[in-house]
Amino acid sequence: MSYAYLFKYIIIGDTGVGKSCLLLQFTDKRFQPVHDLTIGVEFGARMITIDNKYIKLQIWDTAGQEAFRSITRSYYRGAAGALLVYDITRRETFNHLTTWLDDARQHSNSNMVIMLIGNKSDLESRREVKKEEGEAFAREHGLIFMETSAKTAANVEEAFINTAKEIYEKIQEGVFDINNEANGIKIGPQHSPSNSNLPPGSKSPSQSSGCC
Amino acid sequence: MEYFKSGLKTVLGSQDPEQQPSGAETVERLVERVQSSTLLDDRRDACRALKALSRKYRIEVGAQGMDALRFILETDKQDCEIIGYTLDTLSNIMSPTLFDEEEESDRQEDLRHIGEQFTEMFLKKPENVTLILSFLEEYDFKVRWPALKLLRVLLSNRLKDIQDIILVSPMGVSKLMDLLGDSREVIRNEALLLLIQLTKSNANIQKIVAFENAFDRLFDVIIEEGCADGGIVVEDCFLLMLNLLKNNSSNQNFFKEGSYIQKLCPMFTLPPDGADDNCWAPQKTAILFSVLLVVRCLVSPSNPGQVTLSCQKALFTSGIFQALTSILMASGVPINFLAEAICTLSEVIRGNHHNQQHFARVMAPISPPREAIVILLMSMVNEKQSFALRCTVLYCFQCYLFKNEDGQAQVVQTLLSPSYSEVNMVTSGQLLCSGLYSHDSLSNWLSAVALSHTLIENPAQRENLLRVLLSPDPNYRPVTLIHQVALLLQQSNKAQSKIGFLIFLGTWLSHCHLAVKHFLEVPTAIPYLTAQVGSAEGEDDNEELVQGLCAFVIGLCILFNDGTASSYDKDALIQLVSNRIGLEVFSSKLSEVSRNEFYSRASKLPQPRATKPEELLLDYEFCKLFKVLESMIVKAVNPKEPSNSAVEIAENGLVSEYKDVIREQDRKIAELQCKCDSLEKEKNQLKLTLEQLSSNVSQLSDENTLLKAQLHAGGLTHDHEHDLAMQVDGWRTECARKDATIQSLEAEVQRLNISSNQTTIESNPPTDPIESSDMDNLLELFAVQEEKLNKYKDLLRRYGEKVDDDDTDQEISPQPTSHNSPTRNNIV
């Protein structure tokens, strides 16, 4: 299936906040209560539709452990979107958000869309971070915010799709340079605006002569 | 050389020809110049000279110059030329290979590892590598090229260390990836080689390289170079792709999701038959071979099942499955390539029912058309075919039947249905059975193993196959297949054949009472097997294997015996084993199998692998079966010693005891859970209070600091006051002092006043009355005098004498003017 756009995402946040489970729920629609520690990064992908257009999401789920931090930093630059995840039942994961955010802002391109996610919303009884606190943090730092549960799948779709919408809007506004792949955005094979009226396969040489 | 010498002369000044300095001295002088020259030109010349010497005198240059060169890299960054020389020199001294200049050297032994040792020295500072990486950003060929070469040298000496350093250096991998887009081919190609080295067995680097759009870049290069008709660069691209994908399921997933599988398809477009003799030119074959390896690693049986399944699907829809089958049927394909293509196709269909079904329908382009499977099996049982090809055909057949009940049924069906007797229409089943009769032991083995795969995990076919009747000799009554195999086993005198038949029998008898019954009815079967197991040690390893497998088959007869066989029920067989063979011997023979070298080799991978035909002895699936059943057989054969009730009762007692223990533990666990929960609650509460307290504390400490601050400020004013007070005191004493002076002065003044008063009092009282009375007297006198004067003036005027009025006045002033005096004198 061909896509109009391809977006690269990364998922970041402390270890054990449920990054891999969020990805698994999004790509495979299932929940794995016991998940191995992610080593380095793992890849996942899914197609979504926005505005009647197919959009392919390529997602790199990173290891949260400090030991992998220098490795996972290599992924910031080429990503168009980032899901920054904390665990609502563990305050320290919320407290570390600033560090993560600084790291992300420092190594990514400035237009990267960051979605703040408070995961494990199903564990209301063990909640340590109020929803309002998450909202306030997001407002303060200009992020989109959502509480999700990888277990019940609540808001998981929305989290990934809303991030994509935000990127899509930025593209429409012309904020992203879509021809620079380092931004984490690729135009689909049949959708590149310059040769949309040409059949796929007939490439550049005929293009310049044909337009005038 | 002459040029170099003259260059040296300009650097070192001309030397007296009789006093040629030794290499070490020259190097020393040059290094000193590199370190101490203040002029860039001098340093550059010295570096150039060092570079020239670094091949012949690499120990000297390395030992003396390493630090100086490293320093140049840091300080002379802006001069491309000197950096180029320095990087080249470092490459030379750390090079893992010997130079021509060194070949004749008598120090060859020292030189062998010198590159590695210098590398180790260089890597003591990991930032050196980061420095080299930074030179890759310089576009100038003079820098980028030697930097790239140096990195390759470092990588070949210390792969792991460099990988670790690059992994954590910011943007390290992206810098390398950017080089793939360099318009200068030589740099791009070198970068490709570098990346192949760098990505070797390091999953993290592989993933980052893939994330940095490596697959896009590679396909760009491949298309630019002309795909399958391109040169070795295209092959390198696929080798890098292979590195990125091998055992890396994340990247495999990415490759599949990124629709890169479709991009592989054009590589397989073959020219029409006989169109071109060059169609299988070595370079093109090599490229296609590497593409096959890429495809294979996407569907390798060792991958996670999920990935393999989805890649198999994508390989079918992208048309690569189709392309592979046409390679299979094409003529003139080099045999090694064909074998690899068959293996690739095998793994593309392995365990994927959809692809297996399509494979079954592939027809060979001959007349009349035949199924490709049959054609393949023909070459498998053909002694004249190459060993490699026959092996891969077996693998293909195994993959076709893997988890494919329909396929298994179809093959068995060809042996049952009447159509097999039709002339010219030999079936796969027939081919395999004929292979059993062959005089070629490899054919026996391959056919037997192939047949065993029609039965794996398929109870129905185990029973169906029992109905197969064979009539090898038209003069004799047909016999059942199982009977025939038992006979063939006894008649054969080659270990390979025997092992093949035993594998087939073992697979057939496992989990199938009916097959065991049929087998036990073969009159000579059990006596033969017991004789084999009981015989003395075989002279070679393979004989041991035969004996072990015979024991295994006996064990299966015991294990899956429902007692319906005429002569041998379970106990009878156990009795037989213990009497004829001895339980210990039986067990040890059985255990020989899993200790055999071929067993461990076969258990590794589903693909049968052997370099020589006689090494093909065991099969992956059979080893799996053996592993599961071996322990069960040992248990079944060994009678439970003082078997009966006593032990059982004891066991029961033990069991109930354990049950109690478990119950107790359960209770404890529940209790502890409760405790844990309450503790958790308590902990949370404590946490809350702690938080409150800590916020209190912080509040208090804030206040404290505030107060401190205030106190501090207060302290300052206090000091000021103190100063002021001091001053005031000072003033005060001063004042007092001055008061005292004033008083004393006042006193003095008073005293003086008094004395002066006294004096005035003494003088004044008499003067005053005197003066006033005198004055009065004098005034009276004056008036009298004036009257007299005026009288005289009138008199004088009357007498006509001119008289000034003034004169009178002047006479009154105390200082009479001199010119009046004559008049006065005159008057007087």
TrEMBL record, chain A:
Name of the protein in question: Ras-related protein
Family membership: Belongs to the small GTPase superfamily. Rab family.
Bilayer-crossing regions: none
Superkingdom, taxonomy of origin: Eukaryota
NCBIfam families: small_GTP
Pfam families named in the record: Ras (PF00071)
Disordered, as annotated region: 184-212
SMART domains documented for this protein: RAB (SM00175), RAN (SM00176), RAS (SM00173), RHO (SM00174)
Origin organism lineage: Eukaryota, Metazoa, Ecdysozoa, Arthropoda, Hexapoda
Comp. bias regions, Low complexity: 199-212
Listed InterPro entries: P-loop_NTPase, Rab_GTPases_membrane_traffic, Small_GTP-bd, Small_GTPase
TrEMBL record, chain B:
Keyword Coiled coil: yes
Domain (Uso1/p115-like vesicle tethering protein C-terminal): residue spans on this chain: 670-810
Protein keywords: Coiled coil, Cytoplasm, Golgi apparatus, Membrane, Repeat
Vesicle tethering protein Uso1/P115-like head domain sequence ranges: 352-637
Polar residues bias (residue ranges): 12-23, 811-828
Localization annotation: Cytoplasm; Endomembrane system; Golgi apparatus
Membrane disposition: Peripheral membrane protein
Family matches, as InterPro entries: ARM-like, ARM-type_fold, P115_Arm_rpt, Uso1_p115_C, Vesicle_P115, Vesicle_Uso1_P115_head
Coiled coil regions in record: 655-710, 735-795
Region (Disordered): 1-25, 802-828
Top-level taxon in the UniProt lineage: Eukaryota
Keyword Cytoplasm: yes
Primary subcellular site in the record, as a coarse category: cytoplasm
Name by which UniProt lists this protein: Uso1 / p115 like vesicle tethering protein, head region
